[in-house]
Amino acid sequence: MIQAAQAAGAGLQAHFARLSELGVRAKSGPADLVSIADEEAERTTRAILAQARPDYGFLGEEGGTFGGGDTRHLWIVDPLDGTTNFLFGNPLWGVNVALARDGQVIAGVTWLPMINELYVAEQGKGCWLNGQRIHVSGRGTLIESVLACGIPFAGKPDHPVFAREMALLSANVAGIRRTGACAVDMAWVAAGRWDAYWERALNAWDMAPGVILVQEAGGVATAVDGSPLDLHGQNVCVSNGAVHGVLIDALNQARDGHA
């Protein structure tokens, strides 16, 4: 998984150095972009993973799902998380590679090439950043916490809900941030840089590695309403655990129209 993520990252870095030459097109809408770089990175990742475990299924953002003889195991890959950052010359982007068994993530790799951060986690074996064990933060109240979130862009749902979330939370926390890449935000919760992160409109490949990173770093991952996480439920909330309940309460209030 590390080899696949780093090989894809090397190709992406080469494209990042010559962005003006990239072919770019819109996917689902004018603000949802994809490039040749994304597609090449996914092919690279898939080829390396298939060589290691040819029977495993594969789910990628650009190419969709490919079945394998082993129906229990599924590679989940976002070859370039933070595509808009990438295309605008922002270095906060990365490669996500996860392995799910029976629908539960059991291993994950997030590689952030431009800032040289490799996050690795395996079920029961902890979370590691560049070979050093990491843990979620120990902050226990919202007022001392820095949160990260996803902000819906053009073509995404839940803009009114997001506005209510900000109204409820911004006056009661130390700060709210958005890097523009789910891979970065979830990894930084695992590293204790953020105390929590949530997003309401995303996909399995966006969140899968981050789930195991946070869990193995001592944190918690659920749906945004506090229910058990569904990788295909299109939303996630991860935290250090200590602030999880009060954050979920606020998110549920925002969803229900209270601000």
Automatic annotation (TrEMBL):
Gene3D superfamilies: 3.40.190.80, Fructose-1,6-Bisphosphatase, subunit A, domain 1. Keywords: Hydrolase, Magnesium, Metal-binding, Transcription, Transcription antitermination, Transcription regulation. It catalyses: a myo-inositol phosphate + H2O = myo-inositol + phosphate. It comes from the Bacteria. Its cofactor is Mg(2+). Pfam families: Inositol_P (PF00459). Its EC number is 3.1.3.25. The keyword Cytoplasm does not apply. Belongs to the inositol monophosphatase superfamily. This is Inositol-1-monophosphatase. It comes from Pseudoxanthomonas daejeonensis.
